[in-house]
Amino acid sequence: MSPKPLPDLPAPVPARQCCAPLGQAPLTSSEADELAWRLKALADGNRLRLLSLLLSGDGPGLRTRDLVDPLGLTQPTVTHHLRQLVAAGLVTAERRSSESWYAADRGTLQDLGSLLLPDAAGAAPESEHDDLRA
Question: What's the Cα-to-Cα distance from 127 to each of 120, 121, 132, rounded to whole Å?
Fold first, then answer.
């Protein structure tokens, strides 16, 4: 059975179609707005935690009810944050029977990372501040 996107959510534009990597050419106003919109979806601690849980899962995704207890949030709050991540194209939603299953869209997340640091695709992060992370 093929995945069915939730009908009331907009189809996101893949990050790679948004714009050229930041160092290649200056962003147009609309490209900057598109990129900012995606990054704003990540600019929330609860959404980052949700994404972390979805990325650490090794199954076909998680249901909203699977995320409520680990996050310590109510079901409506988890649903709200998931919808924001789905709308930004960072998470996929699939209807199975009467439940929605969510999974991190690894391809879009990699594309987004490549837009920010095109030379770092697949490389381990290096920084002059690496010693501060130890």
Answer: 12, 15, 10
Q: How distant, in Å, are the alpha carbons of 70, 106, 109 from that of 53?
A: 9, 13, 14
Which pair of tokens denotes residue 111? 């594309």
For 64-81, the pLDDT digits (tens) are: 999 999 999 999 999 999
- pTM greater than the 0.90 cutoff: no
Locate tokens 């869209």: which residue?
Answer: 105
DSSP secondary structure of 7-75: TTSPPPPPGGGT-S-TTTSPPPHHHHHHHHHHHHHHSSHHHHHHHHHHHH--SS-EEHHHHHHHHT--H
- Domain boundaries along the sequence of the chain: 28-117
Q: Name the DSSP class of 134.
A: -
Instruction: Please determine, looking at this structure, whether the domain spanning 28-117 carries the CATH number 1.10.10.10.
Output: yes
Strand order in the sheet with 62-63: 62-63, 99-104, 91-96
Give dist(CA 118, CA 28) in Å, integer.
Answer: 18
